[in-house]
Amino acid sequence: MRIDIITVLPELLESPFGASIVKRAIEKGLVEIHLHALRDYATNKYKQVDDYPYGGGAGMVLMAEPIDRCMEALTAERDYDEIIYLTPDGERLDQGIANELSLSGNLLLLCGHYKGVDQRIRDHWITREISIGDYVLSGGELGAAVLCDAIVRLLPGVLGNETSALTDTFQDNLLAPPIYTRPQEFKGMQVPEVLTSGHQARIDAWREEKALERTRERRPDLLENE
Ligand code: ADE
Known about the structure:
The protein is an alpha/beta fold. It has seven helices and nine strands, in the order βααβββαβαβαβαββα.
């Protein structure tokens, strides 16, 4: 998989992709992530990429032309499965969307900034708009980092254990059950006996029951469409 990201702040994305699972996936050659600094595509000598909104009002707007130049250059090189704009008014990211996008070959992400991007970029280029939650961030970069992390960990070969992502919270619309590791006793609290029983069928049944119990308690909305 290849992910291209257009941003005014590439430095903000260097550290999330420079550590842990995403870094390992890049090193293993399972994903390529390319950051494109919007300022490199500015059309005037001041390297300007934002301007005042027509009609007035607070905040600046990312100009259409630099984004368009960058998009033209990238799409001339390859086809993208989706061109995604990170924005608080997009569809809310969930595990289903991450699963779906993890099957892509090439993705192009556009991070908004300030008040957002000129609407004509959205109308012309964008195939999908995604929000990471009902709150406003100062830019789309953290949203892009979240989206990439959620996608990359699902790519075959990224997690050590091939089946690990299948037991995540939200897969099957259930929260994950409680988990424990050594020691068996901690501050007087014991690991549930079933988990040390060695009886896999009982362990699976216990986990399923606890996952359902936790989901009912914390996120009954996940069970509503079952
Ligand atoms: N940009 C600003 N706020 C955002 C959000 N909640 N999700 C995605 N991109 C954003």
